Amino acid sequence: MTARGGKAMAGVAAAAVALGVTQLLAVFFGPEADARTAVGSAVIDLTPGPVKEWAIQTFGTADKLFLSILVVAMIAAIAAVSAQYESRRFPIGSAAIVLAGLAGCAAVLSRAGANVADIVPTVIGTVCGVAVLRLLTSGRFTDEPGPDPATDAPDRGRRLSLVTLGFLGAGALTGVGGAVLSRLTTSVAGDRNAFALPKIDVAAPAVPPTVQPQGVALPSFVTNNGDFYRIDTALSVPQLSRADWELKIHGMVDREITYRFDDLERFEVIEKLVTLTCVSNPVGGDLIGNAAWTGYRVRDLLAEAGIHADADMVLSTSIDGFTAGSPVEALTDDRDSLLAVGMNGQPLPTEHGYPARLVVPGLYGYVSATKWVVDLELTRFDRAQGYWTPLGWSARGPIKTQSRIDVPRSGQEVAQGAVTFGGVAWAQNRGVRGVEVRIDEGDWQPADLGANYADDTWRLWSFKWQATKSGPHTISVRATDNTGAVQTGDNAGVIPDGATGWHTVSFEVN
Ligand SMILES: Nc1nc2c(c(=O)[nH]1)N[C@H]1C(S)=C(S)[C@@H](COP(=O)(O)O)O[C@H]1N2
Ligand SMILES: [Mo]
Questions:
Q1: 446 φ, ψ to 5°?
Q2: Distance separating alpha carbons of residues 480 and 116, to the nearest angstrom
Q3: Signal sequence: where (predicted)?
Q4: Could you tell me the CATH number of the domain that includes residue 376?
């Protein structure tokens, strides 16, 4: 190895030790001390809205994996480069590690619920990283300022490489070990498994099989928990047990209330099917899912607090500091918005908000569907903002009337003769009255509709067509909601309040 390569490796090894030690020590300090999550979350928070949007569109649910890889690669690159300039007089590499450590401490302290003790792992990790870099570049192994160890002192050079590799391995081991250990010690999987959903007082109407059109492979009317889209800013899924959960209701209320999980027992348990949609869902996208939610009416929980007449927003906050601003009426009117604890007959999956989340029919998730929710503040739209609003998204996010073609897929080849196409349409809180389909810019023709389950759920549709003319074709779809409004054909992007336009798919008859 050349001296430069050796120093670069030393930098990477030192960074690995710093990160590894920090990660391992964080196990003993709890989740708030996890610098890795804190830094990643800070990066997410500091990333400009359009870049976040690009990441969601490009990487979908893998956006956070991409972020983690990017951050680790950047740390390694900075460590490798800065370590080249490390010398006794100008400890540039050490300075870089100290700066990174300070940034880590700042990130830790910026997280909800963190206190000063939570920076201890990062401080110790930083000190270890600097010590390793000083050691590896001290000349102890190479007799600096002697000649290039690789050519003139092969044994010493080899010894340096081995020591460097040893530190690199130790860093990786403590890092991975720490991450695994903290996962094991904080996981709420056991708590979740032990949770028996409360007995339902007001069950959802049964789902008739006729909601599902026949003869075409469409998504199932009820989305399995495992297939349900997931969108959130959480870099590691918050692990909040029922015993640690509390919901504080405060702000413009007569009485502040804090519910413990067991306190929910006195409220009526309802079950309701609601289709959730993400505002970042592009036309034709799949950030939408339909589930049976079990839980409590938010209205009932709020009633005990006594809402002031001039409050028009409920600002909900999650354990990890995400916020959403919903109109008070959406949480209190007869749409029965839920504090959900169950999803399709199971306790909420951890990544979908265990132990409790909001589900608000008719509003995009970013202004309503707070997962791991712990706080409801009664306030006003002219005083408070949810997480996404200052990033360029609308303060209010009613779901737009939309529809999607699932069959055919783009570019699909269709044989001559009878074929059935189909998809989904949604206009939560208004309901879908009709769906129309257009082939090759022809006339709009009515599609066959699956049975209407409820205004708050999507509606599946199908369309029988005779494929005669071979060659390329297109199919477009548009829905009409129960107010009589026809889905607009004006194309708009997802920012600021949800995409519009007709989903059009190209296919081939042969
Ligand atoms: N705590 C928290 N809750 C959140 C979010 C978040 O980032 N953090 N994202 C919201 C958004 S944008 C959407 S679309 C829905 C998605 O819910 P799901 O992941 O269960 O499908 O969660 C909402 N609730
Ligand atoms: Mo979303």
A1: -65, 135
A2: 55
A3: none
A4: 3.90.420.10
Residue among 310, 276, 304 at smallest CA distance from 291: 276
Q: Which domain holds residue 97?
A: 3-186
Say how many Å lie between the first and final Cα of the chain, rounded: 61
Each residue of 388-433: pLDDT tens digit?
999 889 999 999 999 999 999 999 999 999 999 999 999 999 999 9
Name 77's Cβ contacts closer than 8 Å, sequence gap at least 6: none
Same domain, 428 and 374: no
Sign, Cα dihedral of 101, 102, 107, 112: positive
Q: Pick the ligand that lies closest to the CA of residue 277.
A: 1
Between CA 133 and CA 318 the distance in angstroms is: 40
Q: What is the count of structural domains for the chain?
A: 3
Q: Distance from the CA of 433 to the center of ligand 1, in angstroms?
A: 28
Same domain, 497 and 349: no
Amino acid of residue 357 = R
Give the number of the atom of ligand 1 that is nearest the alpha carbon of residue 319: 1
pLDDT for res 499 = 97
> Does the CB atom of residue 318 touch ligand 1 within 6 A?
yes
> Nearest-CA neighbor of 435 among 427, 420, 446?
446
Which residue has the least CA distance to atom 16 on ligand 1?
A: 231
| pLDDT tens column, 442-491 | 999 999 999 999 999 999 999 999 999 999 999 999 999 999 999 999 99
